[in-house]
Amino acid sequence: MRPLLAGLLILLAAPAAAQPGAVEVRVPRTFGYFLGDLVEATVEVEAEPGFALQAASLPRPGPVTYWLDLRSVETESAGTRHRLRLTYQTFYAAIDARTLEVPGFPLVLTSGDAHGATTAPVQVPGWSLGLSPLREVQPARRADPAEYLRPDGPGPRLDPAPPRDAALVLAGLALPALLLLARDRAWWPLRPRPARAFAEAARRLAALARGPETEAGYREGLLALHRGLDAKAGRRLLADDLDAFLARHPAYRPQAESLARFFAASRLAFFGGAVAEARTRLPLAEAQATARRLAAVERAA
Amino acid sequence: MNDIRRDEAMLTDWRAAARRFEAALAGAVLGQEAVIRLVTIAVFARGHVLLEGDVGVGKTTLLRAVARAMGGAYERVEGTVDMMPTDLVYHTYLGEDGRPRIEPGPVLAASDDLAIFFFNEINRARPQVHALLLRLMAERSLTAFNRAYRFPLLQVFADRNRVEREETFELPAAARDRFLMEIGMEAPREADIRRALAFDPRFHDTDRLVAGIEPGILDPAALAGIAAAIQHGVRASEAIETYVIALWEALVRPQAAGIRLPGIDDMAGLVQGGASPRGVAALVRAARVRAWMEERDWLVPEDIRAVFAPVMAHRVFLEPIHELDRAEIVPALCRAVFETVPAP
User: Fold this and answer.
1) CA distance B246 to chain A (A)
2) Does B257 touch chain A (CB under 8 A)?
3) pTM
4) 8 Å CB contact between A94 and A32
């Protein structure tokens, strides 16, 4: 009874699980490979429970033989079944179809615990690979190998006129912009000249002298000279400031007397309420003459 | 017609008196011609004066000299931290019979005749005292012993030293606004004047120095009349009116007038307030007195400029962040205003 039962058990277990230590190599096909093809091989190892693949024993990617490289190695485990996915690349330039032997390699299974490790070596068998030649190519014979290179395709012809025109137009626009910038930044030839304050006043007075002489015109003329003096002094100049002004701008000192008369008349006209008296003391023509003399000094300075 | 001629003659006489008044002060206080001129203008504009300056530059001496040269009743108090308004108004003591007595204090003592009330170190007094001064200065009246006292001749002179900040009380804006002028006083810089002040024994004894001044050059009772005559006698043309209003506008809104001060980014918010209509009225009043002293019966921009800073500077209130620097900012602002606003 007992031997019978044991035999039955073996019969039942046999198809379900391979023998521990069994190694199987599977390749999608074993023939029909060309130069440079990738060959994906799967190695399945059935181990004793508790045993695992020793990582150090796995094959390293790199050249295997002179015609075969191992590109990558991946492992996966499910229970006692361990699987290696190996990717090879063949560089065999076959002249005719032939079968070559891919060499096998050893693997080590280990079972380790705190007291020590048990190892079990497993040999992965070699397998054969059918390689085929590439189709024959026969170009005409050339003396210079460079002549085998084909010339480049012809490019489209481009019309240079539109970009040239655009460049000219933009350059034409850039020039006035540059001039504007130079003027704004007061670059070399465009430095602002010091404003000619008295020249402006003299111009205004001359324009007023041409018109009919009125009280309003007289006041306006005095104001023009006042503004000229203000601009020259950089501040508002009152009658009492005349001495300080002349000390700071000695070029106008010869005009001190006429300037004093001007300030006295302006005071009378604007604040003394005696425009008529101011006009007799300092007619507009004399104010104009004063402004002209000041402008002349200003130009010379 | 006759009246006008008499007025003119009176104005001329008083101008001579004002000149003598200035000369008397200048004899006692050396090297302070500008301050003396401003004080004289304030006397004839019937305005109160606050003197500000360093310790020992002669603020008190000047004010004592003014009091003596002007004549009239004179009272003086010293500001202290524990001074109360009642200390100015009432004098309380125990009589010989041991009963408490209350009598008029320093302000009321001379009452109607009080011409000069001299408040020494005003910033040492508390705000309560400043508040009492508000009415005294603005309305020249005070209520005490259940009746109103009037001080028609009163002129308040105060001084303040700007060195110390501890145990002092800044004058409230309302009180500052009631001073016609705030005059800054510096020690004279001229070498010979400094030598005289240091070595001439005449300047060492202040009492003798003040006693040497001719007393009563001006008659306080007549000052109000002459002050009014000056204000009516000096004309302001339309141009000067425009000018003053433009100055006022530029002072209150410096940015709109195109004024930029170095180191201040926010010109629009710089001036927070002040420069009141009362201030501008005071400006014109003082300027008229200056025109009169310069023997003119019409105003010119120089009159405005001469009194602008003392009259207006202390009435301008800046943004709090700039208030600490007002000693530099406000004079620069005043200068910039005059450099910007066209005169005629």
Assistant:
1) 13
2) no
3) 0.65
4) no
